[in-house]
Amino acid sequence: MGGLSFAAPFLLAALAVLPALWLLLRQTPPPPRSARLPTLILLAEADIPPDRAKRPPWLLLLLRLLILGLVVLGLAGPEWRPELERAPPDRLALVIDNGWASADRWAEMVDAAERRIEAYETAGTRFAVIPTARLDTVTEQGPADRSDSPAAARFTDAETALSLISALRPRPWGPDRAAAAERVPPADDFLWISDGFETGGAAALRSRLEGGAILAFPAGSPVFLAAEPTSGGVAGRLAAPEDTETPALLTLRSHTGRSLQETRVPVQSGGATFRLDLGAADLREGERLSAGPSAASTFLLTGASASPRLSLVASEENRPPLETGAFYIRRAAEPVADVETMSLEEAVTRESGLIILDDVPVAQAAAEPLLARVEEGLVLVSFAGERIAENGTSLSPVALRRGARAFGGTLTWQQPMTVAGFASDGPLAGLPLDESAVIRRQLLTEPPGRDVMVWATLEDGTPLVTAERRGDGLLVLVHTAASPDWSDLPLSGLFAQIVGRLARLGSDPQAFDIASTAPWRLERQLDGHARLGPPDRAAVISPDDWASARAGPDTPPGLYRSGDLVRPLNTASALPPDFRFEDLARGGLRPAEAVETVRPLGAWLLSAALALLLLDMLVALALRGRLSLRSSSRPGMGMKASGAAVLVLASLLSFAAPLQAQPLIAPSTSAAEREADLQLAFIGGTAADDEVREGLRGLSRTLARRTAVAAGEPAAISASADDIGRYPLVYWPAYARGAMSAAEAANIRNYLSRGGLVLFDFGRPLGAGTDARTLLGALGLPPLSEATPDHVLLKSYYLLDGTQGGALWVEADTEGDSGRVSSVAIGGGDWARLWGGTATAAPSEREAALRFGVNLVMYALTGTYKADQVHTETLLDRIGRGRAD
Amino acid sequence: MKPGAILEEAGRIAERIGPLPLGQMFARGRRGQGIHRRRRTGSGSEFWQFRNLEPGEPASRIDWRRSARSDDMFVREREQEDPARLVLDLDGTGSMRFSSDPSLPTKVSRGAVILTALGLAARAADEMVVAGGTPLRRAEDLPMLLDRSEGAPPAAGTDSLLVMAGDFLDADWTIRLSEARRGGAAVLLLHVVDPAEAAFPFSGHVRFEPAEAEPVRELGRAEEVADAYHAAWRRHLDMVAAAAADEHAALVSHTTDRPADEAVAELAALIGDPEAQWAA
């Protein structure tokens, strides 16, 4: 079944009117050209021939009828349907995978389904559409069909099937193919539009669809299996399809979608582990890690909720930061809260729900306004210290004994103690105990009253953290100092967790069950394309089940809230921990025959009509004598008119050209194709290739992280490469390659003269044995001089004092504001190995090398643009003097 | 063209050809004395000036009316009049108000430019100029007077040089020509032609709008009548030339795509030619 058909065949009836039009056109000739000629009266009547042009020439008439016919045909919507290889079945069951793996190429899958339906449409085929991912129980099936015995899908006409398909969405959980198999109704033919990966129930579905056809659209992006925050970053595992060779691109995004950091992770044999070093700010701001467009390629991070505000009041001390408690409190609270340091007076007036006081004794009078605010819901946390030990504080929930108790001193026989446990009904419940958190001094209390809660105790039962409810708020006291001189607690991970828990109290002082009992309720839901949106159902996970919760139709992935804690449930939880991509077996299914798209011809016909209409206009002009291809009295006009007509015709035809169908399946873009334009280059073909490549990669990463320069994968080039000009900076590992041919030298000279920059790295300080002359002699370089600390190269980004590996040689007279840019930098810093981390070196040494690298790239890209940095000191001096005057 | 523009262009041309005295043609005493004002004291009929009575002058010359108003005796003097006038006549009918292309002047405005240039040049030689039946007093009025000359009798006598400009399509120009000749005037004819009238550059389906009262003509294929038209056009030219020869009038033909200077120069040469045979 194929050939020509019409979308609106009734319009063809208009063709019947064409003969009538013929008559009409005969009666109305084209209007004549109008002119005056007084001397025409000289002509005798007899000389004037009878009027013949009243009737248009029949060729013109035919042309116009043709135009009208084309317009009618075009509007009737003719379509060319290609022949099908197989006769259309009476009933076709369409099975579509819409699990997480389908999100990547969902548009193609829908397109394939729609094309199939359109191809069979005219044959009267009826379709059943069966998505494999478990149905949205609320939106698609209706609550009544919630039972586990799914009714078989019904057959519908093509139009309904198309709307069903367009309503389908990929789900952020896996397909349940076994359940789908039960819903497949008996049909004459089956088509399985699959995501191309094997799952548990695939066999059942295959046997159900025996004899049917299958189309596979395997996705390319890797998926997360697990990811955990670690100290200073995130680590986890990825799974990727077996044939993936390009490294996975992990992007850390904020909740606004801004990319905070990008990392490439090499993928090997279908899996990868990764570890991202993230700063506290990135961790706090980062909402998700994404490796691709689908839900499974997205990992929501914990820090997705807004952080509470926290006021920190520190006692004034002239001590190094590392010895003050405020430093440790700030470091511990920063990942979970916005911390602001302020005085006590300021803190009273601030809106923040939580104030932490580090060893601030507060007298009764000063405490009144604070206590009043506590009644309204403020949480006050005091850390003990020398001052409170001496003076006491009115902000303590318990009566304190004067002085502090010390363990482990020369005059005491008690050993320093560790934390024995946390009260199970307090907010610190469930924190891990830490043997390394040794406490040497603490504040002792009078016997606590009944209202006082003890949230943490030491081994001997004395309280470490006490709290008391005052109205809506809380008074909390930590009985040891936040600085490391009373205990090792601030140096342990436990301290961060305690402060973190306490900090969260600020947003809801009533919710002690931070980690425990309130059920987790779905707050933001992740859809198949990894977009967070409002939930379309009320999903609840009880706290006991949280650890074993799996993303699925009943508990969709997304952000869940319990009290003031927000936790993500990721699609990764729906994957088994040992998940690997496996290609889908075909079994008894045949590959689906290709179905070409239905080609609408209307646009072509209308374009042809338009072209003929133009031709008609030209003919009409010619008939009126306005357009003459022969010579006329004023040739310019005729030529102008015909030229313009040809132009108009050509432009219309060029408009018609884009009507051509676009290729329907676009190849999925791989990461390699998106490579950045800017690349660092090095002279390849030496033994040091791998090292150098790794080094430049490290430098590129650093550039991307710290500067606006986004350099792509480093390029290995030969010294005689023609395209050397496209690289701003070429690294020459002179320790590995100490000579160049005349042709290469000419190429490099050419490159340098056009603004290129070559870094010659001899790997060790220049001098005897480096044979620099042998290498550089061929280049015929201008006079060189040592770069002084004032050289732009050392100021272009970082202000550097010098470089590794002895003197750095640059072209003479490129210093300061001479305006000249050195085209070479020659030194022996062994930078590549430092950049790549393959050399054993102190971190500071590597950092210095990276900074030099950043400066060098900046210098290559901006030249002396940064030269005024050299004068910064003088300028600042001048400003200072101006103020003093 | 607006009168100002006509005057400007005509002034430019007149300046180039210089003063154009009519004396040459009348110096031959062809017709005796006519009225030809000289702008100096003489024996004309128009008042020129009062002057004091000189001793020995006859008392009959005293103008008593003027002398009674003062103690001195005054004599009325009259302007010297020579009997020659330049009479300009421009056909302003509908067929003259035509140009085949917007870049060309209409025939009537080109005629006006040429006649005005002649008039200005003659005036520069202190000759009397008549246009539209009215003696010219101020040079600026000339285009306006010419515009009014349609149908006005040229009133040309033996003392006149009549310059008639037109396309000579209507029938009554021959009557005016012979009237003027009967009155004894010398006549110059200026035939103003639009290039399209000479070439007939039409083809295809053309609808000819009427220039005057003739009917609308619609030609299916205009190129078919080109030959007939060219024949008719040649007949017309012959007819004009024959009429001019019959009446001993000189004929100058001017096409509007040529500069007006040519026609003015040709006319001026005819006027100033002492050997001219045309006005005999």
UniProtKB/TrEMBL annotation, chain A:
Pfam families: BatA, DUF4159
UniProt key word Secreted: no
Aerotolerance regulator N-terminal domain sequence ranges: 4-78
Taxonomic superkingdom: Bacteria
Annotated ranges, domain DUF4159: 685-861
Membrane-spanning segments: 6-25, 58-77, 601-623, 644-661
Keywords: Membrane, Transmembrane, Transmembrane helix
NCBIfam families, per the entry: two_anch
Protein name, as recorded: Uncharacterized protein
From TrEMBL, chain B:
Signal peptide: none
PANTHER family xrefs: BLL2464 PROTEIN
Protein name per Swiss-Prot or TrEMBL: DUF58 domain-containing protein
UniProt xrefs under Pfam families: DUF58
InterPro entries in UniProt: DUF58 (IPR002881)
Segments forming domain DUF58: 50-124, 160-236
